Amino acid sequence: MSSPATVAGPALEPPAAATRRPRTARMPWARYVAGKLAAAVVSFAVTLVIGFVLFNMMPSDPVRTMTRGRPVSQAELVRLRVQLGLDKPVWQRFLDFVNDTLHGRLGYSWEYQRSVASLTMSRIGPTLLLMGTSFVISVLLGLWLGQRSGWRAGSLFDRITSSTALTLWSVPTFWLGMILLMVCSVGIGPIHGFLPAGGMSDPSLPQSGLRHYVDVARHLVLPALTMILVVYAQYVTIMRSSIIEEIGSPYLLTARAKGLTDDNVRRRHAVPNALLPSVTMIFMHLGTLISGAVTVEAVFSWPGLGDLTYEALKIPDLPLLQGTFIVFSASVILMNLLADLAYRFLDPRVRAQ
Amino acid sequence: MTGRPDESSTALEVRDLSVVYPAARGRGPARAVDGVNLRIGKGEIVALIGESGCGKSTLARTLVGLVRPTGGEVLHEGTALDYSARGLKRYRRHTQLVLQDPGGALNPKQNVYDAVALGPRLHGLTEDLPLTVHDALARAGLRPPEQYFDRYPHELSGGQQQRVVIAGVLALNPSVIVADEPVASLDASVRGEILKLILRLRDDLGLSALVVSHDLGLAWNIADRVAVMYLGRVVEQGTVEEVLLRPQHPYTRALLSVVPTGADDWRPTLLAGEPPDPTAIPAGCRFHPRCGRWADADPDTRAAGACDRRTLPVLAPDTSGAACHLLTSSHLENA
Questions:
Q1: Per the database record, which ranges form the ABC transporter domain (chain B) (predicted)?
Q2: Which of A241, A275, B101, B238 could make a disulfide contact with B242, Cβ separation 3.0–4.6 Å?
Q3: Strand order in the sheet with B71-76
Q4: ipTM of the complex, rounded to two decimals
Q5: What superfamily in CATH does domain A30-59+104-352 come from?
Q6: What is this structure's pTM?
């Protein structure tokens, strides 16, 4: 049996040793970024495979779907198949697709006879305008309402805010869009329609200058409002619950005991700390911004990527669908990567991992 | 006992203090603090002892102005506390709070420098701020201080975190520290160091302190005086020796009896009955439903109904003694 003295030995080391831990023990910045970058590349590669499988292994025959209801001969079908490259073996088509993607062309649309990349570029502006506007407004509105109602949870303000937000969240997007369309642009009873019903600008007006901008803004109101009303509830709920979680923290009591006013305790301590879960969510939504508007763009015929996808679905224009799928996935991956990097700035605990 | 000390030697005093929380659903209002007189002299460490739910944390928070009393007053160096926003802010430079869980008491996103600088910045004491922070950390026993400046709470041990909390308090140069279970969540080895630190601060800086605890050993180690709280009221107080070596009140005796003595005849008195409920305070002496002495009292005494009907006077702030009908009556008989 060992003597008690040897057992007690290690415990007698000076505790100060622990404080002199070398700081290089933290993960260096470059390695962290490289790791996240590698993960993003792997995700993208997997997305390429999934995207290809999804649109090329579908049980339906695209050539038959495209020619449905039209008298076509067997020879014409074969020619169409050769023209679309569907006669090549699957592995050949996959390699072509990967090659095309890496060269930034993203495939060739059957319907438009243009590269998917150029189609995407021409449609991305309106989508970013619509989604960017509604995103910024819904984030600001949601976070502000959320932290207010969380700080006074159970108050009248909180109950009204939360129930309104949840009701709007539960409403189907297309339904809300149609209701707004009926009320605001068609007009119901004594109300006359006062906003344009669809599109992005009035073709009878000049396509530049101040009047054009005002016109675009008027067209933007309804689709953006629909997006905001459906989406902002998520920020309200997540911000509200993180504030409630934060409220019980003793460090808020410490700050108050040091002489900070209640408002400043909320603004300077509770809100910044409660923002972390919301930041994750914001970045995740940033990724889906480009793709998220399919319903709204379809309802309001907004000429963006969502509308393009919707049109491609109706044909179906498989390379175009495949291309937009890749674009949408890539934007999600990119935003997640940015979220990971931003987290390291925002939360010191992640920095030390 | 000691005569009433003059105001100038009093750091903090509460008179007839009561805190009543509004009624929750289906229950009466909670009288968390219900008539307390307490005095903390300058350079004195007072331990406030009691089981959980007796109102000691509420009392501590009332002392630092976080809870507004429903009755009575808090006096800082003889003047009543001003509950206006400006008055409270001024007061908080002098009286600081140390909480039980140091990990939670520090903002996880603030490094040590910012955590310690929080107080001085708030009160506009930004001249020589780095020096203030440096000194505060050094006095709290974190040396060399610079090495801790850009550390975050999660990188520190529990003891180091509590030292940072204490440094944040010291940076304001307060005259009174109210510590709510300051070592309850720390390891035994670290506990001693933190207590030693509080004692040294008292000796070096003349700080006064109220240390809230349920730990009698802690009171013995650092306190000059002890107040024992039961169900919102101080039931016994006096110097450490008086209260811990010659306890009078049956409640204090019961608390002390469970400390193992190692003697053969060690027999702990276990308190029977319901744990105290501040929404339903018993009539008469509030301890009588659980009091062993009342249960064992002779039929005459019980019939006279001393403990379950007669209201007990509240202990005066500076007297040593216990609030107990049975003690008072036996005392009278002996006289």
A1: 12-256
A2: B238
A3: B30-41, B10-21, B71-76, B79-80
A4: 0.76
A5: MetI-like (1.10.3720.10)
A6: 0.72
